[in-house]
Amino acid sequence: MVEQVERKPQKEGAMVEPLDIVAYYREGVRNNITEGRSERISMEGRRMNQVPLFSSARELGNLIVTSNLIDSALTKILELQRDQTALLSPVQYRVFYPSPNCTIVAFVSSPDCTQNPLPGQGDLVPSPLFDFLCTEEYKSVSINRAALTLFTYLHDHLSGLKTQLDHEISLIESNYLKKKKTLHISICVASSHYPLIGCDSTLNRKTVELVLLTEIEGQLIITGHSLGGAVASLFTLCLLDENLLKPKCRPFCITFGSPLVGGFGLQHSIWNSFFLHVVSNQDPVPGLFLPSGRGRSTPTSSHSQTTGYKPFGTYLLCSELGCACFDNPDLILELLKVISSEVAGGLQDVDYGEILRNLKDRAICKGLPQVGERFANPFSAGIIMELETIGFNQTKLLQHNIDIETVISAMEAEARNLTQKNKASDAKKLNEIKIDMTRLELYKKNSNMGYYDCFKNQGSKRDIHVEQFRVNLTGYWEGMVAQIQRKPHKEGATFRTRWLYAGTVYRRMVEPLDIAAFYREGRKDYMNKRSAHYKLLQEWYEEDVKPPSRDKLDSKKQKVSSILTEDSCFWAHVEEAILSCELLKSENCNLEEGKSSWDNLVKFEEYVMEQIDNYAVSPEIFLEKSSFMKWWGLYEGYIDTRSNSHSSPLISFMKNRSYRQYG
């Protein structure tokens, strides 16, 4: 009965639950009904409130195999393989101009490279050639030794090729705007033929769009087979790194039967969408260097050096029954292990040309495998059908200890997270953030004692409302900084430049509010507890800013009345100076504490005067009830009673009331 109710739609569930409530109270229970409410009803309600997800891996796969782009890439690979002189080297490449409207660079490797791998070829090793992929999270990136060896073998030639291709990329860029409208029409037409594309949150749909875009407008295609495909992937990464300023014509990589080339750091590359890997369920090479792979028995390779492999990009997995696209790295990794361990006869040539021809024919009229009723969820049903399409039925998965339900649950959770993220687009978020910043500026403008002290004292409802603006802005910028840190260094630097001004204004406006909340709670030493995202925003700003010239200072002097204090930690220094003054005046201050506090105050004087000389502080610090003027009152009283006289530029500035002319 429980299972039957769980399968009922929401309307039927609504009819069943009142009967449960009647029985509940008939038994004399008087507690809150929600405490005894059946978990199945709650679960059903939560499920019905969620937007249903669908998986369209087969539809995307069929869309890709029916494009001419895949055929064009494979045709050039086969042409290069037929050239016997090309097979005399471990790896060889050729450039095809244009073919038919794409420039294609094809890589092939000698069959001996995969059939007789040398000891240690499956190891993951670091290389300075790919340090540009490093991020704050992944300080180093490891590459498959075999692929790296072949790439290094061609390195000098490829450096010249990159220069040669730069001209091709420039031509492609000039044609982009002319064909943008055609591209939009093509993608719309494709979506009408494959309506589930819009429902799938897990597929890297951008890869499919790039396939269509490349086919229409003619771009640079890097392709390769087997280990040649691994070299093609590495070469594409280098091109993407050097092609940052030309995002409309970035190269696209298509591989056939390529082994995995890297580990976790590579899998987190921001360029995943530019890679499409075609893999047959009869080809063991993609899993060649995995611990379960047939070619992975080299005795000198330690297990720990090979277990870090992670797929990256989109995988088009093919069988005689059909094809499907996946980009979930954990699922892909498990499937590659199964293929590698099950394919009989060791390493053998796979005819990808025949596979693609067969898939094109099947794409026109395709059958649907049956799915057990326990997968009533449309997303789960879709994944199961897609796995069966490429030859992975539930029995086979269980034989290899793959808990497909757990994998699907993780994929669905990821899909829902992505759906929520897409709902709140960057543009929408940015508009909301601008609104919150505008409200903060109005708050600052209308704060008589300065917005720092208004917020610290929390004297009105208006001050409390500002707290929500602060939370919203901080959450947004913490996410932005984390996003930048996940990018490779060069791409992260480009991204930082675009956002630097907005991030600096945010830091100067919001961090003082964080400082106010910090000291309002009676805490000390803010600088050692400062949020990491503020530190990074300041560090990036200081790397970019140039020392002010004399003309710049004159300009700042004229505008000083409307500026934000440049050092977002200014008020933290003020608060610590107040604490030092209070400590010096207390009876419990010992000699060592007194000396330390005095030294800190002298440094603070110098710091403040430097800020004033550079017109780097807002005139609001001199408002009568501000924390800075509170500090000055304490400090002036202390130095006037000191036995040793003390003078400084700041003391003269304050005692002469020169601040009245500031701004």
Task: Please tell me about this protein's structure.
Keywords: Cytoplasm, Hydrolase, Nucleus, Plant defense. Residues 212-289 form the Fungal lipase-type domain. Residues 439-647 form the EDS1 EP domain. There is one protein chain. The radius of gyration is 32 Å and the shape is elongated. It has a seven-stranded mixed β-sheet with strand order 1-2-5-6-7-8-9, with helices on both faces. The chain is an alpha/beta fold and 663 residues long. The protein folds into three domains: 2-49, no CATH class; 57-366 and 373-421, no CATH class; 426-661, no CATH class. The protein is built from 27 helices and nine strands. Mean pLDDT is 74; it is low at 1-55, 176-204, 293-306 and 367-376.
In short:
The chain is built from 27 helices and 9 strands. By secondary structure, the protein is of the alpha/beta class.
Distance between the termini: 78 Å
What's the domain count? 3
Strand runs, count: 9
Class by alpha and beta content: alpha/beta
So how many helices? 27
Task: Tell me what portion of residues adopts beta-strand conformation.
Answer: 5-15%
User: Which percent range fits the helix content?
Assistant: 55-70%
Strand order of the largest sheet: 1-2-5-6-7-8-9
Protein name: Senescence-associated carboxylesterase 101
GO molecular function: carboxylic ester hydrolase activity
Subcellular location: Cytoplasm; Nucleus
InterPro entries: AB_hydrolase_fold (IPR029058), EDS1_EP (IPR041266), Fungal_lipase-type (IPR002921), SAG101-like (IPR044603)
